[in-house]
Amino acid sequence: MSEARNMRAYDAAFARAAILNAAEEVFASHGFDGARMEMIASASGYTKSLIFHYFGDKLGLYVAILQRIREQAEIVQAQTFAPFFTDEAVGRDAENFAALIETGIRTAFDSLLAHPHLLRLFAWEAASRWQTLTQILARRESQGKEYEQIRLWFCQAQEAGIMRSDLDPHVVLTLLLSLCQHSLTALPLYQHIFPGEDWSSPEALVHTREQLVRLMVHAILVDSSQEGT
């Protein structure tokens, strides 16, 4: 009896994963509004009734996809930022604060690069003025303690004279994410405008990421050579 239950649980988990994989591809290709449950059923090999049974409706399926991506990203973020969360002096030490910025940009860039479907979902969301995603976020009780902690470090860095005083920490954080997202989303356009340049090879992507790191570190941190002038 227990073996039969385990088999049913395995089959259910397999079916859910197959549906999520197919739905992620369909949503990335057509956006939330353009995606049809018939497309997802056909791509996954499962019936619409089973999809509705597992996820309730199309929005529930969309939420499940984003939640799966978010959980994967949170694992990486927790491992990457763990050393910073145990260091109370991050916002008061120039070297540690610079390392925080560098790590944040590299993590955001690499996470988006590893999830091309998410980039396409964001592009569809932006085209629809983020209507679906904002609807989902409105249901969440918390918008992320990690974000608030990072913003606090930025404020501390300003108080310590490490971060430029004319910058808004909240705006800077959103720009960090937006620059990573736009850089990757616009790669096909850049390749067309500058056909002689390499934009998409692994080496070119690392180069772009590191240019973003240097740009933001120099833009955010106070130039120690200018202090007192």
Automatic annotation (TrEMBL):
Gene3D superfamilies: Tetracycline Repressor, domain 2. Keywords: DNA-binding. One of its GO terms (molecular function) is DNA binding. Residues 13-73 form the HTH tetR-type domain. Residues 36-55 bind DNA. One of its GO terms (biological process) is regulation of DNA-templated transcription. InterPro entries: Homeodomain-like_sf, HTH-type_TetR-like_transc_reg, HTH_TetR, NicS_C, Tet_transcr_reg_TetR-rel_C_sf. This is TetR/AcrR family transcriptional regulator. It comes from Ktedonosporobacter rubrisoli.
